[in-house]
Amino acid sequence: MNRSVPEGRAVAGNPARPYTTYAEILERVGSEARDENIFDFGDIETGSLTAKVIKERIDRDGIAFVKTVPSNDPFYVNTDMEEMRKNAMTAYLRFKDLMQNMRQDKENKKM
User: Fold this and answer.
1) Cα–Cα distance between 34 and 45 in angstroms, integer?
2) Taking residues 2-17, what's their average pLDDT?
3) 53-104, pLDDT tens digit by residue?
4) 40 C-beta neighbours (distance < 10 Å), count
């Protein structure tokens, strides 16, 4: 990326281009996120979560999510990775609360 990304936009590709918003992503796939298919990158780095387990869960659920960021990434130059990991965890906890509220709202509407 050589330009600023508008807040709330997700980018992909090479070259990277904005393609959707995080709100649209949450609406589309967020309801499929459950504790058993959300993986912590730290567990992958330490080897306590193996590729075999990840594959088994993806085969079972059809989707998986990764929370937090790597402890070391050569693409993040002059970045406080520990601060980035803290921010990622805060964002994950907000996401988890949002998903729980959405599920409760959905259940309440059924009643």
Assistant:
1) 21
2) 79
3) 999 999 998 988 888 878 777 777 778 888 888 888 888 888 888 888 887 8
4) 15
Q: Where are the domains of the chain?
A: 1-30, 33-110
Beta bridge partners of 9: 21
What is the model's pTM? Answer: 0.63
Peptide bond into 15 cis (omega under 30): yes
Cα dist from 59 to 10, 66, 105, whole Å: 26, 16, 29
CB 21 within 8 A of CB 9: yes
List the Cα angle 43/14/38 in 5-degree steps. 25
- What phi and psi, each to the nearest 5 degrees, are found at residue 40? -95, 125
